[in-house]
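Q: Hi! New to this. If I give you a protein sequence and the SMILES for zinc ion, can you show me the bound structure?
A: Yes, paste them in.
Q: Okay, here:
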Amino acid sequence: MVSEFDRHNAPKDLLTRRQLRAAGLSPCGHDPVAQLRCHRCSYRPRIECTHLAWLYRADLAKPKRVPTLAQEGALDRAMAARQTCPKCKRRYYFYLPLRTQGCCDPCHQGFEPAPDTYTTSPAPALHRLAA
Ligand SMILES: [Zn+2]
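A: Thanks. Here is the predicted structure of the protein with zinc ion bound:
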């Protein structure tokens, strides 16, 4: 059973998809809970009206993508901390023995690492230029 509202009696916590998007939100997969009838049709009996809009609960909507990116950023920083050697500032594709050794094997044993074991793309967290 889906409730129907028109623009005058629609609850304030129910928003159309367009209103959600304007607020930087997305329904985040939850189903619409009500329908909004257009202004004109609300004055008439139930004739065919193509102006129905789905209404979503604003409290179930989530900010679009922002948390995902933040989580990815946090994850990447956590990974970078475990993959980056504090001595040579190289970021490797694998976790370094930082707790036991404190640096990468090449630094520890004094050899040049293979180029395919670390990334050469500039990472903001490394401050390569300042090092
Ligand atoms: Zn190193």
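A: The mean pLDDT is 80. Let me know if you'd like me to explain how to read the tokens.
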